[in-house]
């Protein structure tokens, strides 16, 4: 199995949106808002999304973002991180074998407008 890591292309948006929903559990991600967001990110050099492609199928992705950081001489740092659902224990072991460490839990709550 050959895994190709490449920059995201517009043909990948729906696959990435499906990963957000089906694998990571972000049900607020729709095909439409994913397309809109990735199109904005495409024109902003502070963001870069890479996909993992296996035989033409997107099986994963990672996004880097340039962000303000206090205490760094140039004021910026490139941030890399992984988000993975609790149920993905096999993926967690894979990430740990690559040298990633768990640093926090991420909590979320939907707040409905009244």
Any overview of this molecule?
The structure is a single chain. Helix 1 crosses helix 2. A hairpin with a 2-residue loop joins strand 2 and strand 3. The protein is of the alpha+beta class and 114 residues long. It starts with a strand and ends in a 17-residue tail after the last helix. It is globular, with a radius of gyration of 16 Å. The longest helix has 12 residues. It contains three helices and four strands. Strands 1-2-3-4 form a four-stranded antiparallel beta sheet, with helices on one face.
Number of strands: 4
Number of helices: 3
Structural class: alpha+beta
Outline type = globular
Radius of gyration from the alpha-carbon trace, in angstroms: 16 Å
Strand order, sheet with most strands: 1-2-3-4
Report how far the terminal alpha carbons are from each other. 50 Å
Q: What series of H and E elements makes up the topology? A: EHHEEEH
Strand count, sense and closure of the main sheet?
A: 4 strands, antiparallel
Give the overall average pLDDT: 83
Poorly predicted regions: none
Approximately how much helix is present in the residues? 25-40%
Strand residue content: 25-35%
């Amino acid at each position: 199995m050959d895994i190709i890591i490449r920059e995201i292309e517009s043909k990948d948006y729906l696959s990435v949106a499906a990963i957000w929903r089906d694998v990571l559990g972000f049900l607020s991600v729709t095909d439409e808002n994913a397309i809109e967001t990735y199109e904005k990110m495409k024109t902003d050099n502070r963001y870069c999304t890479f996909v993992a492609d296996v035989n033409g199928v997107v099986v994963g992705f990672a996004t880097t973002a340039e962000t303000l950081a206090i205490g760094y001489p140039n004021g910026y740092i490139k941030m890399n991180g992984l988000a993975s659902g609790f149920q993905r224990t096999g993926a967690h072991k894979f990430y740990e074998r690559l040298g990633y460490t768990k640093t926090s839990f991420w909590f979320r709550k939907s707040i409905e407008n009244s």
